[in-house]
Amino acid sequence: MRRLLTGLWAGLALLAAPVLALDVVATSPSMGALVRAVAPQAQLTVLAGPDRDLHALQAKPSMIRALRSADLLVAVGAELEMGWLPAASSSAANPDILPGREGYFEAAAQVPLLDVGGPADRAMGDVHPAGNPHVDLDPVRMAQVAEALGARMARLHPGNAASYRANARRFAKAVEQRLPQWQAELADAPGAVLYHRDAIYLLERFEVPLLGTIEPVPGVPPSGRDLRALAGKLRGGEGIIIHAPYQSPKGPRKLGRELGWPVETLPLSPPVSADGDGYLRHIDRWVSAVASA
Amino acid sequence: MNQSVTRAALLGALLTPAAAVTAGDADIDALRAELEAMRSQYEGRIRALESRLSDAEQAADVARQAAGADALSLPMTAPRVLRSQSQASGQVPAGSRSAGLFDAVTSGTAFNPQISVILDGNYYQDDTEDGNGAALVGEALQAGGGGHAHDHGAGGHDHGDGGHAHAVAEPGFNLRSAELYFSATVDPYFDAASYITISGDGDVTLEEAYFQTRSLPYGLRVKGGKFLSDFGYANNQHPHQWDFVDQNLPYLNLLGFHGIQDTGVQLTWLPELPVYTLLGAEALQGDQEVFGATLGDTDQTELNLGDTDSGPRLFTAFAKVAPEIGRNHALQIGVSYAHATQHQAVHEHTHAVHEHEHDEHDHGHDEHEHEHEHEAEHAHADEHAHDEHHDDMHDHGDGITEELHRAGLAGDADLWGIDLVYKYDAPGAYGQGDATFQTEYLRSSKDLTVRSSAHPERIGSNRTFTTDGLYAQATYGFLPKWKAGLRYDVLGLTNEVSGGRSDSFGSSERWTANVTWSLSEFSQLRAQYAYNDILVGEGDHGEEREQFSAFYLQFLMSLGSHGAHEF
């Protein structure tokens, strides 16, 4: 009996042996890119592609399976994934990655948020008084998030702590280096119309005016009248209209025709396979689109 | 890190006397200088270490605050503290909505549970004579009878559930329910939730109230309390989660309006495998309306059925497997089994007896036809039988009287289920292009013994009643925010009695089509049409069917916090 127990404990000890590479689940490709930048050797699963709305996803068994064995869950946070992530992570029977544990990392909790407060009144649409969650389009905030992520990974996997910190630092440096160039490109940008307030962190970082949103309030598609009112307000000016691939192109195109402005479809996240450089290229794409107005 | 600081400090302290002892006269100045250099060097390093330590502690505090506040309340909220930061930094973006004018100062909800209320109401019409189509679909004929065995209570209704509200739509306006949902993380060890529905008539029903563990190792979770069983796929869904206004025929008839909703414990295991595999088992009290139903005390005595056994009387086991088929697709296949250790039924039938024949008690002339009624007719006969007593006589006025016989049967029951669900998440806006397909097959088999009968020769003989059913339904997002649904459901592909005698009955089926308009994530309007072909009886004159159309207009309003739905 004693031997059996010893054997059992030895087996358990093996199971609990220090990890060689972290098993990380990222909710979006942006978060996946950060994970690759900080921990290139980590085993990574990205739950959603850049062409899907992170707010409208549904919990799926494959997500639960990935979360079951994860050491770390990297979410954008601030209620962006709240329609599915709580269900998926609680079904995963993995206490390590639940909110409140070391294995739960929320990007939005690492940086100051915009749109915080405001009335918690759904007459204003799908509002989130906790703050606008789309922090992943601001490279500076993402650099801060990367450093926080590096620190978190170092705690989870001390054996590789130096490497995580150095990688995070390297990513932050790369953002710093690119920043003047982006700023120069966007210095004279006239502004952009977004479908949803999902790129405001980018616009705010580079001081590009947000000229309006296609949807009158969050989560509610525009009526013809909304679009006419918006067009009336913007007529004569310059700008660009940007929407995500999962947002209906009808409203943006109509507004674009009326104003004679370019309309761009840009994903909020880089491709699923992106790493730190991929993320920077993604920001390049956004910057040159906004600058092209 | 603490350790290295102490070590450095100790080293510094030790080096001072060591240097002093070895000091020679001539070298004193040089040594002193060296010592100074070392001291300052170590002090510098200690300072650096101290500052790194305090940085790390601060970072940990911030992380703990951010995570800790959330652990006990809403899991996904950003810390409130950030608000002052963003305001202080003065980074208000161009065009951002300014907070203040409409801002309400609230006391915060940090420790309150997540609360949501779902209002579910409809307008209903059908073209049956009595407008009772919504009730009829739940009373389709099945061998051995499903329909609410305990409603048979003779005279004194001593079974508590006798008058239970089943939210059956009546022609016109119906408020099916206001559903109150509370959930919270109790502590690091448990989550808990409760669902309470208040029907339009004001009846309050506790649908679910359970805890679930959150920190067991090895992929184990335990749930305890009153909950919807994870048997099958549709069983654990609340009515507002259904793609159709009403429940499918197999669930409605084989399990009842609430499905398997019972008090007990559940253990699930999600092993770490490359393919999602969930295994689970439940032990439940067995307070069921249909599957594993027991009768009231009066009936049990009158019909010689014996008392209700102590629980648990209902056990389930299920396995669900979901192969990986791409990021935007999901497929899950499940197998479920349930066993009720006790099932009781009362079967009623009437004999049309000519007055002059009655004294002879001649029931033998038409045995087959009698049996038909005997084993099946009660499913709806009971509606009219509440006040009838054993061997009641009804004078038809033309020399024919009707005699009601009640027989008591007791035994156990088994239920098998197979389910398959596929979902596609399309890139379109507001659910455009999303598609789902869902199908389940249920097979219920009740193994009963006749305990009492007006025909003594039947007592002790065995009857096995088997009824199965399946549904298949699909939805498709044909426009942003608009979804169409189509469902076919059938009950009684097999619908038979075997054992002491054998017999077989027909099936009931239905086609349903609907359109759902989700104006936002929080409101839905739905129009639904169904063509029903329900077998309500089978007797002397063959099958008795109700064929009718039923029409619903439904609204679903979701108030309060954003709920997260499971797969």
UniProtKB/TrEMBL annotation, chain A:
Pfam families per UniProt: ZnuA
Domain of life: Bacteria
Parts forming coiled coils: none
UniProt protein name: Zinc ABC transporter substrate-binding protein
Organism: Thiohalocapsa halophila
UniProtKB/TrEMBL annotation, chain B:
Keyword Protein transport on entry: no
Region (Disordered): 145-165, 346-399
Any coiled-coil regions, as ranges: 32-66
Keywords: Coiled coil, Signal
Gene3D superfamilies: Porin
InterPro entries with a match to the protein in the record: Porin_dom_sf
Compositionally skewed regions (Basic and acidic residues) per UniProt: 148-164
Region forming the signal peptide: 1-23
Name of the featured protein: Porin
